């Protein structure tokens, strides 16, 4: 994999073909969020959107932990790296962008969770599109237990993603949740043996990357752009985004590949 120059000391950003892997890299603090990390995350999501060759991203944590939430002290301090400090000034609201609350990337994100993904860690998970979790992982939104509020957006997003009663259970009690329970709630897609989350996420990423990139991006945008709309209005948006995909060169290639019984070679056109 190629290590990209947009990486920061607390966020490693690597590219392998169509797949971008973003690793929260502060293991001495259980990958708790810092300004340095959030600037890296914001940079990664912008790169994923802007780079045509990227079709999917993976978000994970270094050394067996996903993310233990916000380190309020570290989030309030500038990066020790002058180059990263300069980038912070160029990225408005980098905290919200890094946390997937603002300017979501146009490509899907898969999270690969080992160990703890709590508070801000679970908020990041809720901002992703596909979720692979190791069987001994711990999830939870602890904010209410500490008289805090989940500012990453989970109070809005979670009840839209899983049944209301499950969402309120997580949000109001602030209790820890096992991987098995998260799967039963519909909060995650897959539970895998410990140590296998990233490998399983990479397999899933290859499946996504093999799909037509225009179709994948249009499906994501349709969901996001139609939230809160009545069905009749939402279908209009769906048609506006879907018909150009149907008429694309990739769609023709997909049909040819099916007919010729071979893998499709999509170009994003």
From TrEMBL:
<dbReference type="InterPro" id="IPR029045">
    <property type="entry name" value="ClpP/crotonase-like_dom_sf"/>
</dbReference>
<dbReference type="GO" id="GO:0004300">
    <property type="term" value="F:enoyl-CoA hydratase activity"/>
</dbReference>
<dbReference type="Pfam" id="PF00378">
    <property type="entry name" value="ECH_1"/>
</dbReference>
<comment type="similarity">
    <text>Belongs to the enoyl-CoA hydratase/isomerase family.</text>
</comment>
<dbReference type="InterPro" id="IPR001753">
    <property type="entry name" value="Enoyl-CoA_hydra/iso"/>
</dbReference>
<keyword id="KW-0456">Lyase</keyword>
<protein>
    <submittedName>
        <fullName>Enoyl-CoA hydratase</fullName>
        <ecNumber>4.2.1.17</ecNumber>
    </submittedName>
</protein>
<dbReference type="InterPro" id="IPR014748">
    <property type="entry name" value="Enoyl-CoA_hydra_C"/>
</dbReference>
């Amino acid at each position: 994999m190629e290590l990209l120059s947009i990486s920061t000391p607390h966020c490693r950003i690597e590219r392998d073909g169509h797949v971008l892997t973003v690793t929260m890299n502060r293991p001495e603090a259980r990958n708790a969020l810092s300004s340095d990390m959030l600037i890296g995350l914001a940079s990664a999501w912008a790169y994923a959107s802007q780079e045509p060759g990227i079709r999917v991203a993976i978000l994970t944590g270094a050394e067996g932990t996903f993310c233990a939430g916000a380190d309020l002290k570290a989030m309030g301090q500038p990066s020790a790296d002058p180059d990263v400090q300069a980038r912070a000034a160029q990225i408005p609201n980098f905290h919200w962008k890094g946390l997937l609350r603002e300017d979501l990337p146009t490509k899907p994100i898969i999270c690969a969770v080992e160990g703890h993904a709590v508070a801000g860690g679970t908020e990041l998970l809720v901002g992703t599109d596909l979720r692979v979790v190791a069987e001994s992982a711990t999830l939870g939104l602890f904010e209410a237990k500490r008289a805090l509020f989940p500012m990453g957006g989970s109070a809005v997003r979670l009840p839209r993603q899983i049944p209301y009663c499950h969402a309120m259970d997580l949000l109001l009690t602030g209790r820890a949740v096992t991987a098995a329970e998260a799967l039963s709630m519909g909060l995650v897609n897959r539970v895998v043996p410990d140590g296998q989350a990233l490998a399983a996420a990479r397999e899933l990423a290859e499946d996504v990357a093999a799909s037509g990139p225009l179709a994948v991006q249009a499906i994501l945008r349709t969901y996001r752009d139609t939230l809160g709309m009545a069905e009749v209005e939402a279908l209009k948006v769906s048609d506006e985004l879907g018909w150009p995909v149907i008429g694309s060169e990739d769609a023709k290639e997909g049909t040819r590949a099916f007919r010729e019984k071979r893998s499709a070679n999509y170009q994003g056109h």
